[in-house]
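Appendix B, record 7
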Amino acid sequence: MSFLIYSLSAVIAFSGVIAGAVLALNTREEMPTASKYLPLMQSIIFATSVAVFLNYFKLNIAVRILVYAAVIFVLLKKQRLNFYPALAALFFSLGQSSQGLFTISALVFLYGLPAGSLCVIHNKRMKWPEAVWKVSKKHGAFLLAAILLQLLYAVFVLKTRLI
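Structure tokens (predicted):
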């Protein structure tokens, strides 16, 4: 997988957060209703991402059940966690094949829609540039981690020269 294709896929996947913020800014009157369902949407998409990861590598059924139970336990807690670093690891793992890269890119993009909307909902008085900056700063760890993991893989495992 080319580093350029991988990096552009990561940027496009990350743009879901910005799209979610813009969507929330343009539909402020709908956000009080949507704020009840956006965390549920995030949880479902994250669980789907983990399921895709486990099924892609064809892990033992006992391991799958154990991981599914752990994911459900974490998702049922009331505390909202930022799962973007975990999504970056999944993105890197699945991003080594074109089919896996397409699947995880779509799931990360979809995960970003409610994440960006929730960030805007919690900061109601933001304007467009401020919202994009704040959302990018809050969830930018995904983009940084995903590209850095691929770069380190290319340099140290594949022995690719950067220059």
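Remarks on this record: The two ends are 18 Å apart (CA to CA). The chain has a mean pLDDT of 90.
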